[in-house]
Amino acid sequence: MKSGGFTAKATAAISRFKRDSEQALGSRRAQQVKKMLLGQHTNDGWLAKIIILLLLAVIGFLYLQPVFYMVSTMLKTVSDLIDPVVQWIPRTVNWQNLSDAWRGLRYPEAFTNTLTIALVCSAAQVCSCAVTGYALARLKFPGRNLAFFLIIVTFLIPPQITMIPLYAIYGKLGWLNTPFVFFIPAIFAQGLRGALFIIIFRQFFLTQPKALEEAAKIDGASSFRLFFRIMLPLARSACLVVFLFSFIWYWNMYYEPSMFLGKDFLPLSLRLNLLQEELMGNTQINFNAGFGKDPISEGPKMAAAFLIIMPPLIVYMITQRWFTEGIERTGLVE
Amino acid sequence: MNTDSGHIVEPGGSMHPAGTLPAGDSNGMDDKQRRRRYRMYRWRDYGVGYLFMLPWIIGFAVLVAFPVGWSLFNSFNKVRITPEGFKFDWVGLDNYKRAFVEDNVYSIQLITYFQEMLLMIPLILIFSFFVSLLLNQKFPGRTVVRAVFFLPVIFATGQVLTELFVQGAGKLPFIEQYNLEGLVRENVGPRIAEPVLAVLSKAVIILWYSGVQILIFIAGFQTIPKTIYEAVRIDGATPWESFWKITLPAMVPFIGLNAVFTIVDLFTFPFNPVMDHVRANMFKPATGYGYASALAWIYFAIIIALLAVVLWITYRAAKGRRAMQ
């Protein structure tokens, strides 16, 4: 009786323990799963990752949709364009539009013009902005703060204000329709978004250790040697970032060229405007011209747009990480 | 003294080695001379600074300060181009008055565009903030996705954007699907519906203007120390709470920065009507440079007001946060 009661108690205790431990194990399992799905802090689990990726995929698709549209339209024939059944994927891939656009843009010539502007100006801008940024960060002179303030102000002045006087000045100097209208401002640190680049360089040089300069100065290096031999090589990453951004923005610039460049020296962006005229002579029929959406010019236009964005896109593919990490790297944001 | 700055460039004239300066060999010198020497040294030093600044100073004087001044002067004049050059007739504020009273296009364009801008700026800011928040999380393929969202900066040529818009590619697809246009038209008055619809019709292209802003926000997130998040987590804060209480307040300066950048970025927005109008009036014999300059200055004045409001709000928000702590 006594022993029986004991065994019964013991078995009950064992079974309770078993149940408890099973429950504990089970809930541990469940917790593990939960942790994997939700993560420790709900934003580092798989579930969160999947949701984030999904969200980004949807937004990314919407975001890039015009590009897909561009490429798809470019490869369509006119009959595909008119046919409402054909949505994204053309029935036959048609390269005619691309060759039309190539001809219509006078691609080799316009490409060279755009490339000249972009390359020369970005190189000039790297040099002039680095020098200015260094002076603002490291050299002492009265009026330094005023200069920095003025640089920020320059950034905020709309180009509309200075456009008319600049047009008159360039006209007087006979620079209109030549690339000098872009070269000269870039050399004098007033190029496209020059103020922003000066600020980037300034921030970069501010983050560099002072000891380096002091050591060089004690060794008797002049400020110029110090800058060109030590500081500029140190700033290689900042230079690259500025060069790339500058290149892209010069490539994409369209307002200033449309103002200053006329017949003789046309970059790609202005050629796109003339595309229809250029091709009109070649296409005999041109119904509903003047309307925005016109199936005949639509294909070549999209092809032309594609040809224009292609070179910077290739540059971007190669140098992608310099763009996306560049802003952090230069310490602009601090 | 200032002229001294010229000497330092002379070839061979090496810069002051930092050691040779005043204190050491001052024994035999009287005080006055020493001070003079010191001052000379200072100005030499300054001279180097000015020399480094020289390209910018020239550029600023010729390509910014002078054009801005001239443009302002133009805006108070009637400018005629004669064979002998420019002729200026002072007309005071007449150009500005005409811009509002006589010009029946400009003021309407301006108002519509600013209404659009007031929609576009928050749209860009919220979108870029949201996307950068997502991109800031850890997940596989993060760099690729980051690259995708920066992509539009690469091909945002004005003409290309205009073409895309003309072809109707700038729309968000669900706008037509759910007949949002009709919805907007029904629910708000025509005054507000107009800019809303204008913004909706090029929504994607507007969002393309958020590439740099996304990068700035991501860089901004890095400035918030991780330890703060750990600390509040131990105190039992949920991610939701820590976003509102820590992330957002810390990001206020960056939101302000991005707002300013967006406003500047929109100067050359291809659908900015001010440009075309200014240019058209510039070459019109009846109006000319003077009137066109006045138009540009009106635009600038409104931009400055907008910037001031943005900076004030940022300042207030940042200050409120400091007071709370």
Automatic annotation (TrEMBL), chain A:
Residues 111-319 form the ABC transmembrane type-1 domain. It holds the Pfam family BPD_transp_1. InterPro entries: MetI-like, MetI-like_sf. The keyword Lyase does not apply. Keywords: Cell membrane, Membrane, Transmembrane, Transmembrane helix, Transport. The keyword Chaperone does not apply. The chain crosses the membrane at residues 46-64, 115-136, 148-170, 182-205, 226-251, 302-319. Belongs to the binding-protein-dependent transport system permease family. PANTHER family: ABC TRANSPORTER PERMEASE PROTEIN MG189-RELATED-RELATED, ABC TRANSPORTER PERMEASE PROTEIN YESQ-RELATED. This is Carbohydrate ABC transporter permease.
TrEMBL record, chain B:
PROSITE patterns: ABC_TM1. InterPro entries: MetI-like (IPR000515), MetI-like_sf (IPR035906), UgpAE/MalFG_permease (IPR050809). It is found in: Cell membrane. Residues 110-310 form the ABC transmembrane type-1 domain. The lineage of its organism: Bacteria, Bacillati, Bacillota, Bacilli, Bacillales. Keywords: Cell membrane, Membrane, Transmembrane, Transmembrane helix, Transport. Its main location: membrane. It is a multi-pass membrane protein. Residues 1-31 are annotated as: Disordered. The chain crosses the membrane at residues 46-70, 117-135, 147-166, 205-225, 246-269, 289-315. The keyword Glycoprotein does not apply. This is Carbohydrate ABC transporter permease.
